[in-house]
Amino acid sequence: MNVVDLVVQIALQVAIAAWIVRRDMRRLRPALYMRSWNDVSFWIAIIVFWPLCIPVHFVRTRRTVWGLVVGLAWMALALVAIFLVTLGLDWVTGSPPS
What we know:
By secondary structure, this protein is mainly alpha-helical.
């Protein structure tokens, strides 16, 4: 893995996880929104615990098994998106897949 791949993957991890969690937070009812992270905790979770912060957010706000299922689905979509972008970047640059 070269440096460009690493930087792209880290940037995508932060951007995609932040987008998913913020998107969900905007759609939450006020009672569920109160269970979500404040700004500092949000960024710590995104940067340190990615990709696990996505299902944890959904479980934390919904407190149901369905929240876990939805969170795991979003996490899987994020992982696939990052893999595909990295694969495309490898194809464009002509380097072997990492």
